[in-house]
Amino acid sequence: MSLGRRSGWHFVSSILRYAIRRLSQEGIRRMMIRPRLISAASLFVTVALMSSGVSAITVEVAKKCEALTDKAFPPRVIGNPAAGSAKGSGKDAQAYFNKCVKNGGKVDDGGSEAK
Fold first, then answer.
1. Domain-by-domain residue ranges, the chain?
2. Which of 10, 32, 54, 68 is the most buried (most CB within 10 A)?
3. Whether the Cβ atoms of residue 100 and residue 67 lie closer than 8 Å to each other
């Protein structure tokens, strides 16, 4: 009977050793994969930002263009932006704002582009 216990214990011990060895190998693989994923993701983001060529507009330019757009496209009803613009459509105002930002806060025409 003691022989059976020993062989049973040997069997359990060999299974435990195999499980620990297997888990440690998977853990090593996972520990190696995670830094690789982080490195690949950061490289992808860096390349995407560098290759886009798009630069962020400054706050001053955005505020200036917003004020110029508000002046060129006054609201139909004061205090109610949902009423729409007295001149042009939302697309016209957006195009005007984008043109202003593209020109660095300067608009060559005196009014809106809408007719």
1. 1-54, 59-102
2. 68
3. no
pTM: 0.47
Q: Which long-range contacts (CB under 8 A, 24 or more apart) does 29-35 make?
A: none
CA 54 to centroid of chain Cα atoms: 14
Q: Which residues face 85 on adjacent strands?
A: 75
Please tell me the distance from the alpha carbon of residue 107 to that of residue 85, in angstroms, as a whole number: 19
**pLDDT per position as a tens digit, 36-65:** 667 777 777 666 666 655 567 888 999 999
Residue 71 and residue 28 in contact, taking contact as beta carbons nearer than 8 Å = no
Among 101, 35, 20, which residue's Cα sits nearest to residue 68? 101
